[in-house]
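Structural prep section.
Before we set up the soaks we want a predicted structure of the protein with KG4 in place, mainly to decide which crystallisation condition to try first. Input record follows.
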Amino acid sequence: MAQTLTFLGLESSCDDTAAAVVRHAPGEAPQILSSVVAGQEALHAAFGGVVPEIAARAHAERIDLAVEEALAAAGLTLGQMDGIAVTAGPGLIGGVLAAVMCAKGLAAATGLPLVGVNHLAGHALTPRLTDGLDYPYLMLLVSGGHCQFLRVDGPETYARLGGTIDDAPGEAFDKTAKLLGLPQPGGPAVEREAAQGDPRRFAFPRPLLDRPGCDMSFSGLKTALLRARDGVIAEKSGLTVQDRRDLCAGFQAAVADVLAEKSRRALAAHPGMTAFAVAGGVAANTVIRARLTDVAAAAGVPFLAPPLRLCTDNAAMIAWAGIERFRLGHRDGLDLSARPRWPLDQSAAPMLGAGKKGAKA
Ligand code: KG4
Ligand code: ZN
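Run finished without errors. Recording the tokens verbatim:
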């Protein structure tokens, strides 16, 4: 009988410094005993994107505090852990190093096993943490830094079916908000405006829908939005409230159409999935979520979206992925390296571009 495992998880690959404690008894649902996330939005707000040096310094200053807080919130000590899981990539290298060095220090001092985790695996395995989903399932990661379809066959077995060849959709939402004078993060602001807009007034492109496969592109949409905005301004010397709403609605409809059609293709090409799961901040968008729910229903599979706090960056997913890898016998030594790029599917062609939140896998 496998043992009950309690893992400390650490995450610092982007702009959230996070630590969490997760416990799993075989045959039972995993328990998140604590999950601490310290965001850095305020530190980067003035720069319009994450500044790697600022992020790295903030992670280095905060990671040990996050660990202390996570242990205290769980009511446990380091000595009561069975292992330490840490994001070892992909991400902004200075940031990744902060948690990796902290985890190595803790492992060296306590003798606890150390498990390096791929950040994307953390996202991809979250539906097992939240809902006990069985393999194989289809996952769409869609956030400010990620956009890819993954077929998840096991804790270390992934096939990337396609992804963005340039920007992530969250980035496009953020850029759209910026171009229209709306606040950051752009996604929720654009969604609010779009709710009262006409999605048919502006004809935005649906990039790559004319090509087979599941690859996507969102950078052209930003340019289309800029042109449409400038067209209205040239005509009327300004944007009315309704112009802005219609631009947001048209943009959002284009993103939703692309994600829905590519999801439909991914599901059609991979029958027998236990579910279609999403993760990432963009999955919070109610219009996009409704479209993806319909696509899953049409394919005859359940749709699953973990709670938002577990869809976005956190360390509970890292602790959980660490437990899954540990159960497969995986251990890392103190020579564990931080990796800026680390594709989950080593056989897939490398992806192009690097989002505002750093290198994509
Ligand atoms: O997963 P996340 O918190 O961070 C990473 O990118 O890793 O995702 C943040 C992204 C931002 O780009 C934000 O604008 C977008 O998710 N987002 C949304 C919505 N809420 C957040 N995009 C569209 N609609 C939303 N309601
Ligand atoms: Zn992430």
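Observations: Residues 352-361 have pLDDT under 50 and may be disordered.
Flagged for discussion at group meeting.
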